Amino acid sequence: MIYLDYAATTPIDSIVSDVWVRTEEEQFANANSRHILGQKAWAFLQMQLSQMAELLHVQKENLILCSSATEANNTVLKGLALKYPQKKHIITSMIEHASLIGAASSLEAQGYEVDFVDTKEDGLFDLEHLKSLLRTDTLVVSLIAVNSETGILQPLEAIAALCHESNILFHSDVTQAMGKVPINLKELDFASCSAHKIYGPKGIGLLYRNDDLSFIPLLHGGNSLSPYRSSTPQSALIAAFVKALELSMTHQKERFEKVSQLKTYLLDQLRSNPRVHINSNEHSLPHFVNISILKTRPEKGIDYFSSCDICLSSKSACCGQDEYSASVYAITKDMERAQSSYRISISHLTLESELDALVEAIERMPYED
Ligand SMILES: Cc1ncc(COP(=O)(O)O)c(C=O)c1O
After folding, report:
1. Is 152 helix (H, G, I), strand (E, B) or coil?
2. 175: DSSP letter
3. Which of 95, 116, 200, 302 sits at a 20 to 30 Å CA gap from 8?
4. Residue having the nearest C-alpha atom to atom 13 of ligand 1
5. How far does residue 6's CA lie from ligand 1's centre (Å)?
6. Helix H segments across the chain?
């Protein structure tokens, strides 16, 4: 089986799963318990948090561990809405992950106004448009760091500076950027990410909050690792997340170079196929190759690739099955391309022979009426 869907999720690194299992066995006590094993688990977790903070160049008080990036995205928007009830305006974009759009839409249904920042032809957010949307009652600007279909990396520092000039909070979903490129979290007010995109386990995410910024928690309960999220700390998942982060940071440069070479290898072959249009552009991270294969529809196309033992996606795994791709439409303004797009997401684990098999499968792909 050829796996080319690393943006949907990554296989867990065996070093990470070893840490996970060992911690589950050795640190099973509830870190909120008062007894000696609870205290040991608490001390262990404090060490883990310190290590995570060091890796991310932030303070450990800035880290709110939760179940997923979906939870982090929902928490920041809804938690800020509870904290600042007089601010009824949210700015985001059409190329966010479904969890962010979903959270914004649920607030819209409660009477919030939601504005969407345009993207320019190159796929980057139109900062002039963003500037024109900022208002005194804007609760938060939430814009994605790397789009999960096209892989386009946005200029986070410039966006943060623009928001801060107007004293407006800036949140970014950095799930697809974390581990792949350096991110300066300190420039942001809030950020969300998830362990399973960086060869860590599913079921653990992070909401970063900059110093002194707060919101009303969505999960109330006993005191835990952070006052912003109650629950028994997931010690083993946290330790595994820290190990996954450490590995992705340590190997970031060499993995990036390897993936860049693989992308060049793939694009050189795809360019000779007249049915293929390449949607990702010079701003896309090398891990993403978004293409349209004309006269095909992804609903059937994904099944066709599966029959060739190749796993890839059309859109983000969390989007509906038969819509067009809003992210591809945003950069191509071409509905045919947006309706026939596929996301090939590659990794340092990808082999050239796997890409050869994909190219061959695309060449043999049947036309649809
Ligand atoms: C950009 C982005 N945000 C959020 C998520 C959701 O992450 P999780 O699966 O941890 O909820 C994903 C995963 O597909 C993503 O790509």
Report:
1. strand
2. T
3. 116
4. 8
5. 12
6. 14-26, 36-56, 69-83, 98-109, 127-133, 156-165, 235-250, 252-270, 298-307, 326-332, 335-339, 352-363
Q: Which fold has domain 2-10+251-363?
A: Aspartate Aminotransferase, domain 1 (3.90.1150)
* Domain formed by 14-250, architecture: 3-Layer(aba) Sandwich (3.40)
Domain assignments of the chain as residue spans, ordered by start: 2-10+251-363, 14-250
Sheet of strand 288-293, all strands in order from the earlier edge strand to the far edge: 276-278, 288-293, 341-345
pLDDT at 317 over 80: no
Query: For residue 320, what pLDDT is reported?
Result: 52
Q: Please classify residue 322 by burial: count the beta carbons closer than 10 Å to its beta carbon, then call 0-12 exposed, 13-18 middle and 19+ buried.
A: exposed
- The encoded tokens of residue 101 equal 């759009």
Mutate to test the pocket of ligand 1, among 10, 77, 95, 99 (most ligand atoms within 8 A of CB): 99
Query: What pLDDT, on the 0 to 100 scale, is given for residue 322?
Result: 45
AA letter at 56: L
Q: What is the pTM of this model?
A: 0.96
Torsion of CA 15, 19, 22, 27, to 10 degrees: 180
Q: Which of 283, 244, 261 has the alpha carbon at shortest distance from 347?
A: 261
Q: Evaluate whether 203 touches 9 at the Cβ level (below 8 Å).
A: no
